[in-house]
Amino acid sequence: MKIAETIKRVLGVSSIVLMLALAACSSPEGQGQHVDSKEIYTNGTMKAELTSPPFVPAPVGDRDAKQLTVDMEILEEVGEMTDGVQYVYWTFGGSVPGSFIRTRVGDEIEFTLKNHPDNKLPHNIDLHAVTGPGGGATSSFVAPGHQITFSFKALNPGLYVYHCATAPVGMHIANGMYGLILVEPEGGLPPVDREYYIMQGDFYTKGKYGAPGLQPFDMNKAIAEAADYVVFNGKVGSMTGDNALTANVGETIRLFVGNGGPNLVSSFHVIGEIFDRVNVEGGSLINENVQTTLIPSGGAAIVEFKVDVPGTFIIVDHSIFRAFNKGALAMLKVTGPEDKRLYSGKEQEGIYLPEGGTIQTMPGEVPVAPEASSVEDRIEMGRRVYAQTCLACHQPEGQGLANAFPPLAGSDYLNADVERAIKIVIFGKTGEMTVNGATYNSVMTAQTLTDEEIANVMTFVYNSWANNKTEVTPALVAKVRSSH
Amino acid sequence: MMRRTSTILLGLVLMASTGLGQGSPTMTVIQGGAFVPLYGSDSAEVAVAEFELDIYPVTNAEFLAFLSENPKWQRSQALRLFADGNYLAQWAGDAELGTGMDPAAPITSISWFAAKAYCACEDKRLPTMDEWEYVAMASPTAANAQADSVFNQWIIEGYETPNTARKKVGGNFANFWGIHDMHGLVWEWTSDFNSVLISGESRKDNDLDTSLFCAAGAVGASDLMNYAAFMRYAFRGSIKANFSVRTLGFRCARNVEK
Predict the structure, then answer these.
(1) What is the mean pLDDT of chain A?
(2) Residues of A in Cβ contact (< 8 Å) with B157
(3) pLDDT band at A347; cut points 50, 70, 90
(4) pLDDT reading at B109 higher than 90
(5) Which pLDDT belongs to residue A140?
(6) Closest approach of chain A CAs to the CA of B59, in angstroms?
(7) Chain A contact set for B205 (CB, 8 A)
(8) Which of A242, A459, B4, B56 counts the highest number of beta carbons within 10 A?
């Protein structure tokens, strides 16, 4: 009797152990891909927390799958693209990108889409996290002043884009109707110290970049894919200066990065950081030690890295003109103690005067260089030397670059002393100088040019841009060269 | 002849009651013709017979006058079947405009049924979608400006501009026919607004309904024209006859007696 009972109990316990073991086999840690997501039971109801960028709702952690209600309002409203430039944004939840939605695998989401009565247009939502026709778009078409509710079950973990898919689709997306929905795996993503939400988008305005006033959408530019603005989180400077993302040294950062498009693919990069882990395309594939990750239009990526040293880290689309000329630039400011072992900072500054990049010749027979036979000839030959050697810094019209390279056009410094100018071309110059009232403190490298070439280029410069028309001869150059 | 007299009389009554001095004729004749709409028809080209159309959309003041004579269309009386919960939602009462509402602004937040009843009381009707689109393609200088990219860009910009429904009627140019505010003010009901089925999943619409898609291609005009029209058809596809929308008004049409 007693023995039988013990056996029974042991059998019972062992069968429980067996069940647990089986459960563990069928559910690898943190993934849950091998479990049929359709069969995950929900336990309780919950209203989804929605956040505006760059913030994200609290992680799901180890909570059960739930009946999750999402309430999202569509607003068409005027916002600021950059200082002095307004744009009519169409938004999910009043921000571009739209509110961040955070769910977990197995959640059953009851989604209510409200189209504000003041809006002019019908809208809908296509969530890439939805398994069903149109990603919900077929069920969510809603007129202004109305709302619509549909439901779906989150089956696949990952980071997904949502967007409006009402005709004309491109225009709805171009005006800002996109956002991200995260479906976390069973048990949640591994904890990190900070999480942020960044989404890139391209904008097409009637006026050029920076043209002031309320700028209407430009359909022709959108079709030509010639973006005036490429920005993070809907506007230029959304995350720079006082709005910069912040972190402390030693923290781990997770960025949920999306790309709304409508047209451009993002080469997402953080200057001065290497992504420790990237969920490629927002899916389950992990890549490590990534410098730049490609984010397709209508796609996403999760990037993680640890910030080891303090400073400002610039977040860019490494299609780099977009970053510095169209707005695709954000900042992460990291504060904390420096670690000189990892990054020294500037230790020593010195002058480096290489031989110059103009002419490199192999030893051997030297081809005979042409010589100028007249002043006009000299000017013409000098123009070519200028284009190859001087133009990059002193600019096509000799206008120079403010605070960096002094002008040659109408230059008091140049016209005051020919021999001094020749000397600078031959030997280079460093240190402070004043040209036309402005102070420059830069470096000009020594130029490996022949006497003839120096004579030509300087004659060209002196006879251009309102300078004093001096003719510089090779003999004069030779004299300056030998006197030092 | 009788009808014209009554129209003029009505015009006078309206002028007296609203203080609007819009001049005598309230309608103008639209000459018939043929055109290619974005879609809404089996054949590529659609013929439109000569008809008359209101020069301006119906205003708040005009609709208020209609309500005093037809109390069954007042907000508290209208059947939900014919007018949803947004019907005249911004009005202060059954016979009182809401604060800040301009009597000379277009009436909005009315259902298709209410608009239809209004026109019937005037011995008119709602224009068909083809009639409306036919008039809407006219710029100030051309009866058919489908290929005029500047005109079409202007239309799209108007669709994007918020709160235009609060402006007075007549603020936008008179088009080739002398009709004002076809664009730039409010969406407008048409008698057969729901005859083009847009599911709301426009990409699917393109794929499945190739006849519609081909018709769009047959326009041969700029993409801009298609886009402006797309937005109108998408809007029409999103509404039902009992919907009342803050950006949706109407104007009436009438057959020309031969």
Answers:
(1) 87
(2) 206, 216-217
(3) low
(4) yes
(5) 86
(6) 18
(7) 167
(8) A459
Pick the more confident residue, A19 or A275: A275
CA angle A377, A379, A384 (to 5 degrees): 100
How many angstroms separate the CA of residue A342 from the nearest CA in chain B?
52
According to the model, what pLDDT value does residue A368 have? 60
Query: For position A351, what pLDDT does the model report?
Result: 60
Q: Please give the domain boundaries of chain A with CATH numbers for all domains.
A: 45-335 (2.60.40.420), 375-482 (1.10.760.10)
With a threshold of 0.80, does the pTM exceed it?
no
Region at A431 (left for phi over 0; alpha for psi -120 to 50; beta for the rest): left
Tell me which H or E stretch contains A200. Answer: strand A194-203
Residue B201 is nearest to which of A121, A144, A165, comparing CB atoms? A165
Q: Chain B residues within 8 A (CB-CB) of chain A?
A: 86, 89, 109, 149, 153, 156-157, 159-164, 187, 198-205, 223-224, 226-227, 230-231, 233-235, 237-239, 243-248
Q: Report the residue from B159, B205, B223 with minimal CB separation from A120.
A: B159
Greatest CA separation found in chain B?
54
3-state SS class at A183: strand
User: A388, A394 in Cβ contact below 8 A?
Assistant: no
Do B19 and B62 form a contact (C-beta atoms < 8 A)?
no
| CA closest to B205 among chain A residues | A167
State yes or no: pLDDT of B198 exceeds 70: no
Whether A115 and A143 have beta carbons less than 8 Å apart is answered as yes
The domain spans of chain B are 26-255
- What value, to the nearest 5°, has the Cα angle with vertex A428 and ends A425 and A433? 100
Which residue, A72, A86, A223, is CA-closest to A148? A72
For residue A184, the cross-strand partners are A104
CB pairs under 8 A between A and B: 120
Q: Cβ separation of A141 and B159 shorter than 8 Å?
A: no
Question: Which chain A residues contact residue B161 at CB under 8 A?
Answer: 88
**Tokens matching residue A278:** 């990237």
8 A C-beta contact, residue A152 and residue A139: no
Give CA–CA dist A245/A307, Å, rounded.
Answer: 13
Tell me if ipTM is over 0.85: no
Residue matched to tokens 């960044």 = A198
* Cβ pair A168:B161 closer than 8 A: no
> Which of the two residues, A367 and B98, has the higher pLDDT score?
B98
Pair of tokens at residue A76: 């068409």
B157 and A216 in contact by Cβ < 8 A?
Answer: yes
**Residue of B109, B231, B239 with shortest CB distance to A168:** B231
